[in-house]
Write a structure and sequence with these properties.
The chain contains no helices and 19 strands. The strands form three sheets. Strands 1, 4, 7, 8, 10, 11, 13, 15, 17 and 19 form a ten-stranded parallel β-sheet that branches. The protein has a seven-stranded parallel β-sheet with strand order 3-6-9-12-14-16-18, with no helix packed on it. The protein is mainly β and 171 residues long.
């Protein structure tokens, strides 16, 4: 899978064998389903861009997906439903940069890298659990504060630096 022009619709990974290697920027304006594997996806330095356009997006499948960088952006407000625990395991950066509100619901996602909140709309809510796990220094920065339902920090080393506010509604 590699960089293309335009946006792909719903993506369903259903390989039967081998390694799936991701390259460049993959732009999706639909749902992401991984029914293949967690271990046999090589994210490399790829970037998965979810274009939000006032429609609901489902992220899930049978297995979590390990990705390098994930961006939720675009021109609309969207509810994103996570269909399983650790639906996305992000090794580098999670960016939230839509012009509308972003709401992530259900289950959890894992951020092993930085979180950048450059949303131009103040309403970004994670109604799911955010796991902060990386072994390197991580930061939360951007334009607005981040509102989360639950945060679990299980870092094996180094620190988390908050350059923006982080509000947590459940422990």
């Amino acid at each position: 899978v590699s960089t293309g022009i335009g946006y792909l619709g719903n993506i369903k990974i259903a390989k039967t064998a081998g390694v799936l290697s991701l390259f460049g920027t993959i732009s999706v304006c639909g749902s992401w389903t991984n029914n293949y594997s967690t271990a046999n996806i090589n994210a490399g330095t790829s970037r998965l861009y979810f274009y939000l356009s006032n429609v609901g997006i489902n992220i899930g499948g049978t297995y979590p997906t390990k990705l390098n960088q994930v961006i939720f952006g675009g021109g609309g407000s969207s509810g994103i439903s996570l269909g399983l625990d650790s639906a996305l395991i992000i090794s580098d950066t999670l960016k939230l940069q839509s012009t509308g509100s972003i709401t992530l619901n259900n289950y959890s996602l894992v951020a092993n890298g930085n979180i950048v909140m450059n949303n131009s709309h103040a309403t970004t809510i994670l109604n799911s659990t955010l796991y902060l796990k990386g072994s390197s220094n991580q930061y939360l920065k951007g334009t607005y504060d981040l509102k989360c339902y639950r945060v679990v920090m299980n870092k094996t080393a180094n620190s988390l630096t908050l350059n923006k506010g982080l509000s947590i509604t459940n422990t």
